[in-house]
Design goal:
- The chain is built from 11 helices and 9 strands.
- The protein is an alpha+beta fold.
- The protein folds into 3 domains: 50 residues, no CATH class; 126 residues, no CATH class; 130 residues, no CATH class.
- A hairpin with a 5-residue loop joins strand 8 and strand 9.
- Helix 3 crosses helix 8, helix 4 packs antiparallel against helix 8 and helix 8 runs parallel beside helix 11.
- The longest helix is centred in the C-terminal third of the chain and has 35 residues.
- The C terminus is likely disordered.
Length: 355
């Protein structure tokens, strides 16, 4: 097993010291727990991948890069799992409307299935809509939905709705009341107690999410969407693990390649990396707290997709700019350079003896 754990070390390090490390492990293995020895091997191996033994900050920078890579990879894995989920069927919406309001005719009822799992402005993402996604309208990229609406709500709308949801097997949350409109705080005519409220009821059944909104003006609307697919959770965890490990290995390769290089190489690489991390982490640090506050403020039968917590795709342009800068860093690290020749030991001559 320990031989496989040596993969945590860079290849050159394994070739030079692998046998010595294994001999040491065999000598101390009987006196220490195997788990502890294995953990130490992995820990020191991952640190050796970063090079720069005298640097302390390199570990922190590598950790930042690895975690961010892991988060983006987890989002990508979740997105792939979403693409494999069961598509929405407009007949399911018609059945739900018939269960909840059997004696009423819907003023609007979607009659077609959504063309894709995710839509932007009601259309699948394509080359024509890609500029919209990258230039600030990425928030419109969201899971597909089916909608229905009624012009009027029955007098006992909320009570009757909740009873029928229970009878149909829907697991519902407490109704959410929100003001139908806002007014200027402190204004003489602004009395929040007199503002009418819109009421929204969220419910879940199987792989369906239902939102029923009872408008203060008397209208009713229903929105049917897909619940988070079960495969999204293992896919996200796998992406997180692979992305974090891959980010650490990639950072270590670039770190070792630029260590000891000329200032004209190390300087641009550090600047490009710093700016790239700013482009990648700023959307995360600004979006994640807002998303958390949003989730805590009202019930969510389905949490927002992971990439929205990272500010994507709303802030996808900074992400792409950061990716370009990181590619430049890798290009700088890949530049060929001469390794210093080994110095002869004291007391020896670098020339061959005369014959």
């Amino acid at each position: 097993m320990h031989r496989w754990l040596l993969l945590a070390y860079p290849r050159d390090y394994r070739r030079a010291r692998g046998a010595e490390i294994l001999d040491t492990v065999r000598d101390v293995g009987s006196a220490h727990r195997r788990a502890r020895v294995a953990a130490n091997l992995v820990r020191h191996g991952l640190r050796a991948r970063l090079g720069r033994p005298a640097s302390r900050s390199v570990v922190a920078w590598a950790a930042v890069f690895a975690v961010v890579c892991g988060l983006f990879a987890a989002s990508f894995g979740t997105w792939l799992a979403w693409l494999g989920s069961r598509p929405l069927d407009h007949r399911d919406l018609a059945a739900v409307v018939g269960q909840l309001y059997p004696d009423r005719q819907a003023g609007h009822l979607d009659q077609d299935d959504p063309p894709a799992v995710f839509l932007i402005y009601g259309q699948p993402l394509d080359a024509d809509l890609l500029p919209e996604l990258l230039l600030g309208d990425g928030g419109e990229y969201a899971p597909a939905e089916l909608t229905a609406s009624f012009d009027q709500t029955p007098a006992a709308g909320l009570t009757e709705l909740r009873q029928r949801l229970d009878a149909a097997g829907w697991e519902q949350s407490e109704p959410v009341h929100s003001h139908a409109y806002d007014c200027i705080p402190g204004h003489p005519r602004c009395d929040p107690a007199t503002i009418p409220s819109d009421i929204t009821v969220y419910a879940a059944r199987g792989d369906h999410i239902l939102a029923v909104e009872l408008g203060a003006e008397g209208s009713t609307s229903l929105t049917l969407s897909r619940a988070t697919p079960g495969a999204a959770y293992p896919a996200g965890l796998l992406g997180l693990a692979l992305g974090t490990l891959g980010g650490w290995v990639l950072f270590g390769w670039a770190s070792r390649r630029t260590a000891g290089r000329h200032t004209l190489v190390q300087g641009p690489a550090k600047v490009l990396y710093g700016v790239a991390m700013l482009f990648w982490t700023a959307p995360i640090l600004s979006s994640a707290p807002l998303m958390l506050a949003h989730h805590l403020s009202e019930p969510h039968p389905r949490w927002h997709v992971p990439w929205e917590w990272l500010g994507q795709p709303t802030l996808s342009l900074p992400f792409l700019l950061g990716a370009v800068l990181l590619l430049l860093v890798l290009g700088v690290a890949a530049l060929p350079h001469r390794r210093p020749a080994a110095r002869p030991l004291a007391g020896t001559s670098g020339s061959q003896p005369a014959v």
